[in-house]
Amino acid sequence: EKNSLKTGRYSIGIRLLGTTIAQSLNTLVWLTVYLAVIVIIFSSLIYNVEKGNPVHTDKGIIYVRPGEDTPSPYSSIPASFWWTIVTLTTVGYGDVVPVTSEGKAVAALAMLCGILVLALPINVIGGNFVSAYNLMKKQEEIRKETPKFLTDKARADYYEQRVAEFLMTVDTLQESLDELKNALNSFKKM
After folding, report:
1. Of 189, 138, 133, 135, which is closest to residue 162 (Cα–Cα)?
2. CA nearest 140: which of 1, 4, 37, 8?
3. CA 173, CA 179: separation in Å to the nearest integer?
4. What is the Cα–Cα distance from 165 to 188, expressed in whole angstroms?
5. Is the Cβ–Cβ distance between 50 and 72 less than 8 Å?
6. How many angstroms separate the CA atoms of 129 and 117, rounded?
7. CB within 8 A of 11, min separation 6: which ones?
């Protein structure tokens, strides 16, 4: 019985997570597309400022950055994706770093862009989570408050009244969410 209680408790959380993701799907798609474009842009920039000078070897042409003997870690735009993703997500492993002033400027812009790209959708997703959480709490509250001794007609009337109250709460939450989305859209247009 203890295990079934734990599973039930966790399934509510999983349902809450699923509801939040479903409500945030549009935002998540937008975030993915935006990140893909930003990764391509910053990978192109960092490649062009950090690739170094061409050196002819018996294996072909390699690029070496000034003051270094090893090939540049930014050997191509796709090879620069790793650095860009790590920088945009503010993980910053440090395994690949820019050494030129221009490269450091690109890195600073990428970091700032990464903070903005992640911060804006997180607010929308957080708002959706709060809405879904409040909705689940209200449903649970209604379920617990329903008297068990009511006749079918009285139970139906009771539920109808509670559902009407609940829908007013949902409308209020939806209005708040719409205001947040409008604020986000106006911020995107800037």
Report:
1. 138
2. 8
3. 10
4. 35
5. yes
6. 19
7. none
**Concatenated DSSP letters for 60-98?**
EEEEE-TT-SSBPS--SHHHHHHHHHHHHTT----SS--
Length of the chain: 190
**Whether the Cβ atoms of residue 40 and residue 73 lie closer than 8 Å to each other:** no
Largest CA distance in the chain: 90
Dihedral of CA atoms 6, 9, 12, 14 in degrees, nearest 10, equals -40
Q: Among all chains, which residue has been given the structure tokens 């209020």?
A: 172
Non-local CB neighbours of 169 within 8 Å, separated by 6+ positions: 134, 138
Six-digit token string for 189: 């247009």
| Per-residue pLDDT of the chain in tens (190 residues, 90 and over written 9) | 455 445 545 677 788 888 888 888 888 898 889 899 999 999 999 999 999 888 888 888 888 888 888 888 898 999 999 999 999 888 877 788 898 899 999 999 999 999 888 888 888 888 888 988 888 888 888 777 766 666 677 777 777 888 888 888 888 888 888 888 888 887 777 7
The helix (run of H) or strand (run of E) holding residue 13 is helix 2-23
Tokens of residue 131, six digits: 């809405």
Burial tier of 138 (Cβ tally within 10 Å: 0-12, 13-18, 19+): middle
